[in-house]
From TrEMBL:
GO terms for biological process: chemotaxis; signal transduction. Belongs to the methyl-accepting chemotaxis (MCP) protein family. Residues 1-23 are annotated as: Disordered. This is Methyl-accepting chemotaxis sensory transducer with Cache sensor. The lineage of its organism: Bacteria, Pseudomonadati, Spirochaetota, Spirochaetia, Spirochaetales. It is found in: Cell membrane. PANTHER family: LYSOZYME-LIKE PROTEIN-RELATED (PTHR32089:SF112), METHYL-ACCEPTING CHEMOTAXIS PROTEIN MCPB (PTHR32089).
Length: 748
């Protein structure tokens, strides 16, 4: 079915050519692009990177270890230097203490010459210690012996507290009015009389860097008598630091607390100058520098590792400044790096040879064999039955086996494609007739859809009219339902009012019954009260009668008391006539007179009380009479009230009966209203359901209309698609011809 044709280069693919051309292209691989070259470069690069990493790590480790070793060396040297400085200061302090404790020095007094009140030509007074008092001469000779025995001592002097006297070796002229007590060294010792004191370093007029050491002097009785002062040359410090070596280039300088240089082994001319003269920025604020090391460049341009550390001497505190050239840290590391570079070069050469041998003898041979086999396969006439005959167990052999499997799958694929092309050609031949039949059927469907759309439009119009009528019915039903609801509400309000009225009538009836009973009780109590008051009135009348009898008795008592009083007066007269014999009778007569007077007074009070009681009884009698009249009126009113309450109770009973009848009628009206409202609601619900059905029908009609329109659009699209299918069928026929021509080249 497929013809055998030679493959020709395509103008669209300039890279397509004959198998011989492709084989020659494979044989012309650039040397830099070959696997052998890449393998050698990879192996050499890996060896080089490993050497660089190892060398860098070793160099950094050596540099770090060198720094640590130098720091330990610095600590050791600073410890030695600090101990030497302490010995130096302790020696000076000991000599000063010894001189201050000499008996001759402790005898200082006015025998030493004073210049306080002296003047000299030109303001200078010569000092002549040997021409004065023998004590002063002996003291001067002791100072001479001490200074001569200690080359670092410039001068030794003594100031006297008593009169400001002063003696010094070697002798030097003093200024007019010189008073040792006003000098700073004297005041320093006087302020600290029990210890040796050191001053800050200063430069003399002759250029020497010195310090003065002072000690207060006390006599045998421990009285303060003066101050001993010794000036010390600091050149011994320079000699001390000159002998210190840290590594090959490291050295130590000494400064005071303010940063003034006391000793510098390489720059002795800077003694007395501030350390900022070294032009290191951090030394400008020397007091704030801590003990952490830092790097800086000196005047000669070399970078130095610098560390500042304070001494532990309290009497003469100084600072040690260590300088080590940083290049010294890298000497050992540089030597090791050079050795590593040499060894790495040898390793690179060896790696290059090994990689070249492996790539040439092992890998390249199998690759060339596979390349030749593929070239032979490409030079044939698309024969898929041939494969690669490589049996090695490495990746090249695996590649050959996988390629052979690929050829087998490709053969199966070519066979399947040939079968599919034959089937496609058969389908394409039958597609033309089916397309014409489908086109006519689609035209009939389009006409039918147009007719359905017109009928659905008429149905929509009728549904709209029905929906309008149902809406009007529903509106009227809603209005009627609202009126029925209002009527039901009014009936319910009337029923509630009647129920409340009946309840109120019941309450009034109960109250009337209660008040009726209370009024009847009031009438009975009124009658009882009237009887009680009448009885009280009769009792008061009997009391009035008895009071009259008492009044008569009181008058009788009053008459008796008058007669008794008269008899007592007569008895008293007779007793007076009798003299001593009638004295006893006179006493009896006096007592009788008093009794008569007392009886008369009691009778008078009784009469008065009886009159008051009589008036009160008369007023009470009048009140009782008035009360009786009032009770008669109250009794009559109570009887009238009882009759009125009886009539009210009868009327309320009749109203209660009528209210119950009205309530029963209202309940019947309410039930009828509820039935009417329920019927109205059922009619309204039916109307709403009919309206919903009409709306649903209208919606369905709209959806059907839209569906018909979409079907019509779909039929139009189907017509266009069928036309495209016809065109594609023609193109498919052409493609099938080309595929048959192309796959006809393969041999399977």
């Amino acid at each position: 079915m497929f013809g055998q044709k030679k493959a020709r280069p395509s103008p669209e693919n300039p890279h397509q050519g004959s198998p011989q051309d492709l084989a020659r292209d494979h044989q012309r691989v650039h040397p830099l692009h070959s696997i052998k070259t890449r393998l050698v470069l990879a192996f050499v690069s890996l060896t080089f990177l490993s050497s660089v990493v190892i060398g860098g790590s070793v160099a950094l480790r050596v540099i770090s270890q060198t720094r640590n070793d130098y720091q330990e060396m610095v600590e050791q040297q600073l410890g030695i230097t600090n101990q030497a400085l302490n010995n130096y200061i302790n020696n000076i302090s000991y000599n000063t203490e010894m001189m201050a404790s000499l008996p001759l020095v402790r005898q200082a007094d006015t025998r030493i010459t004073s210049y306080v009140d002296k003047t000299g030509p030109g303001g200078s007074i010569p000092m002549l210690p040997l021409e004065g008092d023998p004590y002063q001469a002996d003291l001067y000779r002791i100072f001479e012996t001490f200074v001569t025995a200690h080359p670092a001592v410039f001068t030794a002097s003594l100031g006297v507290e008593e009169h400001g006297g002063f003696v010094q070796y070697p002798a030097r002229n003093r200024g007019d009015g010189y008073d040792a007590r006003t000098r700073s060294w004297y005041r320093q010792a006087a302020a600290n009389r029990r210890e040796v004191s050191f001053s800050n370093a200063y430069t003399t007029s002759t250029g020497e860097l010195v310090i003065f050491v002072v000690r207060a002097v006390h006599d045998q009785n421990d009285h303060f008598v003066g101050v001993l002062s010794i000036d010390i040359d600091l050149r011994d410090l320079s000699d001390m630091v000159s002998n210190i070596r840290i590594g090959q280039s490291g050295y130590v300088a000494i400064t005071d607390r303010e940063g003034n240089i006391l000793a510098h082994p390489h720059r002795p001319e800077l003694a007395g100058e501030h350390i900022s003269r070294l032009e290191i920025p951090r030394f400008a604020d020397f007091g704030s520098i801590d003990e952490e090391p830092f790097s800086a460049s000196l005047e000669e341009g070399s970078n130095y590792w610098i560390r500042v550390r304070a001494s532990d001497n309290r009497q003469f505190p100084v600072q040690f400044v260590v300088f080590i050239e940083e290049a010294e840290f890298y000497i050992t590391a540089n030597a090791i790096v050079r050795r590593i570079i040499l060894i790495s070069t040898l390793f690179l050469l060896a790696a290059f040879g090994i990689a070249y041998f492996i790539s040439s003898r092992v890998l390249a041979r199998n690759i060339l064999q596979a390349t030749r086999a593929m070239g032979e396969l490409a030079q044939g006439d698309a024969d898929l039955t041939r494969g690669l005959a490589i049996e090695s167990r490495d990746e090249i052999g695996l590649l050959a086996r996988e390629f052979n499997l690929f050829l087998g799958k490709l053969r199966n694929l070519v066979a399947d494609v040939r079968t599919a092309v034959d089937e496609t050609e058969r389908i394409e031949s039958t597609m033309g007739s089916s397309t014409e039949e489908t086109s006519s059927a689609i035209e009939e469907i389009s006409a039918t859809m147009t007719n359905i759309s017109r009928q659905i439009q008429e149905m929509d119009n009728q549904v709209d009219q029905s929906a309008s009528s149902m809406k009007l019915i529903n509106t009227n039903l809603q209005n009627m339902d609202e009126r029925i609801t209002d009527q039901a509400a009014m009936v319910e309000q009337s029923t509630a009012a009647i129920t409340q009225m009946i309840a109120s009538l019941g309450n009034v009836a109960q109250i009337t019954q209660t008040k009726l009973k209370s009024t009847e009780n009031l009438a009975q109590q009124t009658e009882i009260g009237r009887a009680s008051i009448e009885e009280t009135a009769s009792i008061f009348q009997s009391v009035v009668v008895h009071i009259g009898s008492i009044q008569e008795m009181a008058e009788t008592i009053n008459n008796i008391s008058s007669q008794t009083n008269l008899l007592s007066m007569n008895a008293a007269i007779e007793a007076a006539h009798a003299g001593e014999a009638g004295r006893g009778f006179s006493v009896v007569a006096e007592e009788i007179r008093k009794l008569a007077e007392s009886s008369a007074e009691s009778s008078t009070r009784i009469s008065k009380l009886i009159q008051e009681i009589t008036g009160a009884v008369q007023r009470t009698s009048e009140t009782v009479s008035n009360t009786t009249t009032v009770l008669d009126a109250i009794s009559q009113d109570a009887r009238d009230t009882v009759n009125a309450f009886s009539e009210i109770n009868h009327s309320i009973s009749e109203l209660n009966t009528g209210g119950r009848q009205v309530l029963e009628a209202s309940e019947e009206i309410n039930e009828i209203t509820i039935q009417i409202r329920e019927g109205s609601r059922e009619i309204s619900q039916g109307a709403e359901q009919s309206l919903a059905v009409a709306a649903r029908v209208q919606t369905i009609s709209t959806e059907v209309t839209g569906g018909v329109a979409e079907v019509k659009i779909g039929t139009d699209e189907i017509v266009l698609a069928i036309q495209e299918i016809v065109e594609l069928s023609k193109k498919l026929s052409e493609v099938i011809g080309k595929v048959k021509e192309g796959f006809g080249q393969f041999h399977i």
